[in-house]
Design goal:
The complex is a heterodimer of chains A (418) and B (296).
Chain A lengths: L1 H20 L8 E7 L8 H16 L3 E7 L4 H10 L6 E5 L3 H6 L7 H6 L10 H6 L1 E2 L2 E2 L2 E7 L1 E5 H7 L10 H11 L17 H5 L20 H15 L6 H7 L11 E4 L3 H7 L8 E4 L10 E10 L6 H11 L2 H8 L5 E2 L2 H7 L5 H6 L4 E2 L9 H16 L5 H16 L2
Parallel strand pairs in A: 1-2, 1-3, 10-12
Antiparallel strand pairs in A: 3-10, 4-5, 6-10, 6-11, 7-8, 7-9
Chain B lengths: L2 H35 L2 E2 L8 E2 L3 H7 L2 H33 L5 H13 L2 H11 L6 H8 L14 H12 L1 H13 L3 H9 L4 H12 L1 H16 L3 H7 L10 H10 L4 H29 L7
Helix pairs in contact in B: 1-14, 2-14, 3-7, 3-8, 3-11, 3-13, 4-8, 5-12, 8-11, 11-14, 13-14
Classes of the chains: A alpha/beta (418), B mainly alpha (296).
């Protein structure tokens, strides 16, 4: 207990010192601290849009001043530190990939009482899956803002040039490989295999594999399964057979090979739309999306989501709730999602946006999407770190998929046992 | 004690007070606190802590990932330190000549020392890029095919060590230049009379006279090489696989990815002891080399 008190005192002292260094005259207003993982604003259209939503809130609530605390890089540890020092920001953006850590450790408040008291707020306005990401033990800890299922983007122009028909939802691994092979012509490649685990974990799911056991506590016996070996081998062979560029070739170009028009298909989320719209190397009108190839009766994918929660210890929870409602309102979400960053978690907004190209295709894929394992497993950041290393070993040809998966499973189990 | 002596004592204490306070607050206390934490099993964000005695140390001693990170750090130091010293000494000798623009070159070589480690790392990512990077373009000119310096487990650590030669150049060059200036000219004059010039003079006069400086540079460079963190964090995140997971980065991940505060503290303390041991051995060697005199 003494150690904890000392730690708390040290962290509190640091927080106070940092607070003093940037203190502002409060002029009697309620200060509402908003934590986000955004970096310093670049003054682009998206930044201006978010800023406008904040300023509108202040105009509508002249007694409240918003103080935005951007925490780029290592967002999770920074919020956890603020939690230990009892200075969690009033409103905290929650990433579904790390929500278990926040929710299970009391960083955020249960929002159920606020929803029950507020007749204007309708939880059924939101997609069921997105509410699931912020729910733990029947309590809702974050209001979903936006989300995206991971999908396969394809470049219709490259398909047309290679004379390959466009892919259809529900295609299988063999059809995918065949498509990659046929697209790998004229200096172009079919697909791009990345070592980034959030971008490949759903390949395992689509071959009836998984990362952890049902309880989310053990990897050995699940991660090193035969199905997973086959899946990783399948991805490796795409590179070995020349249907996908080597990681070093992608590094060499320094750009996204899909956005550059060098590969015909890539896995990504909705956020890539912003880049694809602005790049001159691909025609946005030639962009299509399709489900992940699957060996199951219907495809599954992961969705990544962000939501807003109220920090535990928030002194003005009513003001925080008011802000969350303001941010998640129809009007503001329509503005926010016009940037193309993701799909709005509100059904009415996303339906409105479905008039835009490819938006409806995204909405069609919501049904088969699952929350990331980080919504249930506290130490999932470690798992993803090991996933990247495992894939490095395989793609660099230093380890077989079987060896690499066994090693990864052993490390995860060792970590979970600490 | 005379009142003058007392006054002087007080003044002396006042002069050292800020530095002592700084040392106490930001070095001694955190080190002591780390030692205490290392005896607990504790996830940073959980209130419950269990006193486990030496268990974290025993676990660390058998943790393959931690042992691998120490091995990587030592490999890195073994390459980065000697190569950095040889290059710095060569440049110091060149700058020590009475050349035009020598002040300009001194500034140029010191620039990395005052630049942001993050910015430097970003620049070197582009220098190391396969095919289109500066280094591969130069190698391509002499017919060497592209190397994925940071993307291959076989080359990533050596690439970081190579980069450290440049980033760590400034302070080493300054120290060597100071050492070179301190070599009495009379020794060279006497040697010249005996017919020893050029390489002979360098081997028999310059090098022996630079031993104290060299040993000091070895000690400080070794310590900073074992503590290397920024380029790993910025450029490789310990990968590919575990090839660049040095001990500093490993401890950082233990503390801020896994939040195992007790274990990370134990590992930090082991690193502290390791560095202290290396420094002690090097200082002992220094004393021996100088016949009992310490390095100034």
């Amino acid at each position: 207990m003494k150690v904890q008190r000392t730690t708390k005192f040290a962290l509190l002292a640091l927080a106070v010192l940092s607070g003093l260094s940037c203190s502002q005259p409060t002029t009697g207003k309620t200060i509402l601290r908003i934590a986000t993982w955004a970096g310093a604003g670049e003054g682009n259209d998206f930044d201006k849009l978010v800023e406008q939503i904040y300023r509108d809130f202040e105009k509508e609530n002249p007694d409240i001043k918003l103080v935005v605390e951007n925490m780029p890089g290592d967002y999770v540890p920074k919020v956890m530190l603020s939690h230990i020092a009892d200075v969690v920001p009033d409103v905290t953006v929650l990433d579904a990939s790390s929500s278990a850590l926040f929710v299970k450790n009391g960083v955020l408040q249960d929002l159920t009482p606020y929803i029950q008291k507020d007749k204007d707020f309708k939880a059924d306005q939101f997609y069921e899956n997105t509410l699931q990401a912020g729910t733990y033990n029947g309590k809702l800890y974050s209001i979903p803002v936006d989300f995206t299922p991971m999908v396969i983007y394809y470049n219709k122009d490259l398909f047309d040039k290679a004379g390959v028909p466009y892919p259809k939802n529900g295609w299988n691994f063999a059809q995918f490989r065949d498509t990659c092979q046929r697209l790998s012509t004229g200096g172009k490649k079919g697909f791009y295999v990345s070592n980034w685990m959030p971008g490949w974990v759903m390949w395992l799911w689509n071959n009836n594999g998984n990362v952890l056991d049902a309880k989310g506590t053990k990897a050995t016996g699940t991660l090193d399964s035969e199905q997973n070996e086959q899946t990783i081998q399948f991805l490796k062979e795409l590179v070995d057979k020349g249907y996908a560029p080597k990681v070093s070739q992608v590094t060499a170009s320094g750009v996204d090979p899909f956005a550059n028009g060098d590969v015909a298909m890539a896995v990504s989320g909705h956020w890539s739309v912003i880049g694809y719209k602005s790049t001159k190397t691909i025609d946005y009108k030639c962009l299509g999306i399709v489900s992940m190839p699957t060996q199951l009766p219907s495809p599954v994918t992961v969705y990544y989501e962000s939501g807003l929660g109220i920090g535990n210890g928030c002194k003005n929870p009513e003001a925080a709730w008011k802000f969350i409602k303001h941010f998640c309102s129809y009007k503001n979400q329509l503005r926010y999602n016009s940037s193309g960053i993701a799909i709005c978690a509100r059904k009415d907004v996303s339906q409105e946006r479905a008039k835009e190209p490819i938006e409806q295709e995204f909405i069609d894929l919501i049904k088969g999407s699952r929350p990331p394992l980080g919504t249930q497993v506290e130490g999932y950041a470690f798992v993803e770190q090991q996933g990247e290393k495992m894939m490095d070993g395989v793609l660099n040809g230093r380890k077989t998929p079987a060896e690499a998966l066994k090693e990864m499973a052993r490390r995860i189990d060792r970590e979970f046992a600490k | 004690m005379s009142s003058l002596r007392q006054k002087e004592n007080r003044a002396g204490w006042l002069f050292v007070a800020p530095a002592t306070l700084h040392l106490l607050l930001f070095a001694i206390l955190p080190i002591g606190f780390t030692l205490v934490l290392s005896l607990y099993r504790w996830k940073l964000y959980r209130p419950d802590k269990t006193f486990v005695g030496a268990a974290n140390y025993i676990y660390s001693a058998t943790d393959p990932a931690f042992l691998n990170s120490i091995y990587n750090s030592l490999k890195y130091a073994l390459v980065a330190v000697p190569s950095g010293i040889v290059v710095a000494l060569g440049i110091a000798i060149l700058l020590n000549q009475k050349l035009r623009l020598s002040a300009f070159f001194r500034t140029i070589y010191y620039l990395p020392a005052i630049s942001s480690g993050v910015a430097i790392s970003m620049v070197w990512i582009y220098i190391f890029l396969p095919e289109t990077g500066l280094l591969n373009t130069l190698l391509g000119m002499v017919g060497i095919t592209s190397i994925d310096f940071l993307g291959k487990s076989e080359t990533a650590l050596w690439s970081l060590a190579f980069m450290s030669i440049w980033t760590g150049l400034g302070p080493k060059v300054v120290l060597f230049m100071a050492g070179l200036i301190g070599v009495p000219q009379t020794l060279y004059e006497a040697a010249e009379l005996d017919g020893a010039t050029g390489w002979k003079a360098f081997r028999n006069i310059t090098l022996p006279m630079l031993i104290p400086t060299t040993l000091f540079v070895v000690v400080t460079s070794t310590i900073s090489a074992i503590q290397v963190f920024t380029p790993v964090y910025m450029m490789t995140k310990g990968g590919p696989e575990d090839s660049t997971e040095v001990v500093g980065y490993h401890i950082y991940s233990e503390a801020w990815t896994s939040f195992n505060t007790g274990l990370a503290s134990a590992k930090s303390f082991i690193l502290f002891v390791l560095i202290a041991a290396v420094a002690y051995i090097q200082f002992r060697m220094t004393k021996k080399q100088l016949g009992g005199h310490t390095v100034q």
